[in-house]
Specification:
With 214 residues, this protein is of the alpha+beta class. It has helices at 2-30, 197-213, and strands spanning 33-41, 49-52, 57-59, 72-75, 78-81, 92-96, 129-131, 139-141, 145-149, 155-166, 171-183. α1 (2-30) packs antiparallel against α2 (197-213).
Length: 214
């Protein structure tokens, strides 16, 4: 009888262990972190180039006012986001200046701002770039980190790297390079294992201890 009870308890504990392990695995799988560094050709002075952070690519958009497939639009130095007056999405940005890109593990809460008739979000303050004027007429990116809420409500951190095809020589203007990290699962975390998994791990440890004790 005792042997049967032991086997029964072991099966229950092992099942619980499997469920918790599976849950943690699912949690980490769902935490889809997309980290990219790339360049968008925004040399056309007449047409917007629409970019999707989740697709990590330029997307073909017929009407920006009705589509949520794009997150950011580029046209030379002009940049718009899919929210506010620029599109039907949920896009808005928050600017961070007193930190570094790598140190941001979570999108902070704050006053995220969408594009308005007066000014796009990336042009706020002194904007995302500085124009040097003559004689060089260079476009130099400002050291800012942008927290972007995407058209579909996910969060990304983004920084601009350069404006030229060859940034060292400042040749080939209108090629905007940037780096971003996108969290696709709806949370604010830019890491693979958000703190929410800690409780599950603690429960798993306790359960395994009970199995060994029995």
């Amino acid at each position: 009888m005792k042997r049967l009870m032991y086997i029964h308890n072991f099966i229950l504990s092992t099942t619980t262990l499997f469920i918790l392990t599976f849950s943690i695995s699912q949690l980490n799988v769902n935490a889809e972190i997309n980290h990219k560094s790339l360049t968008v050709d925004a040399t056309d002075r007449e047409k917007w180039v629409y970019f999707s952070l989740s697709e990590s690519d330029v997307v073909d958009i017929k009407d920006q006012t009705t589509s949520i497939k794009w997150d950011i639009g580029f046209k030379r130095t002009a940049i718009i986001t899919n929210g506010g007056v620029s599109g039907p999405g949920d896009s808005a940005t928050l600017i961070l200046t007193e930190t570094s890109f790598d140190n941001i593990d979570e999108a902070p809460k704050g006053d995220y701002v969408s594009d308005t008739d007066q000014i796009p979000t990336f042009a706020r303050g002194d904007g995302w770039y500085t124009y040097t004027g003559p004689p060089n007429h260079w476009i130099l990116v400002n050291e800012k980190i942008y927290i972007l809420r995407t058209a579909k409500g996910n969060y990304a951190k983004l920084r601009f790297i350069g404006y030229y095809e060859n940034n060292d020589a400042k040749e080939g203007s209108g090629h905007i390079s940037f780096e971003y990290v996108l969290q696709n699962n709806g949370t604010r975390f830019f890491i693979n294992s958000p703190p929410a998994s800690v409780n599950a791990i603690k429960k798993l440890t306790i359960t395994w201890a009970e199995v060994k004790k029995n």
